[in-house]
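Translate sequence into structure tokens.
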Amino acid sequence: MKLSILIPVYNEEKSVKKLIDIVKKVDIGKVQKEIVVVDDGSSDKTLEVLKKIKGIKLVGHKKNSGKGMAIRTAIKHATGDIIIIQDADLEYDPNEYKILIEPIIKGKADVVYGSRRLKKSNKKHSGISFYIGGVGLTVITNILYPNANITDEPTCYKVFKTDILKDIKLRCKKFEFCPEVTAKVLKKGIKIYEVPISYYPRSTAEGKKIKWQDGIEAVWTLVKYRFMN
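Result follows.
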């Protein structure tokens, strides 16, 4: 069995090598790892850094197209049995891959989300933006999709059986990947299984790119795909 780790990257010259080094060292037992990195037209030295890293499948966008487009490109290049989305900003801990893929390996789930809200120790790290944005989007998801019953919709750590994700027609370009894929998974009647994960948020000054406008877009995406495909 093989795990494809999809890493969309944009202007992460300071963190991307450290992140990939961690990913390479993660112990996931007998499961093989495939690291697919998509540089989304970075304007800093990210691509130069990536070209020096061995053991990854590197794809580059000529211009910045958005996280959603980078993930869509990465999905096309994934050859594993399981896919996990990994941001390059070190807010999430790759050492938790094992607990994230275990429900799929054991046949308990087809889709797994890592929930930051299920781990109590995260409360000391999370600011008001997480509670307003993360909790708000989750509540809206559970209202629009009664079969959802999840605690953390916008989490980065989303894990899928590869055939399920590749069967979903995605239209996302930017940060609306999360609400779109959530909506389309739930509309297929697929149960989202959650496990608790750690979370170490960074500030805008440290390079966090998501803005309040992306939250508005996420809400619209959830509403839109409730009524259309």
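Note: The mean pLDDT is 92.
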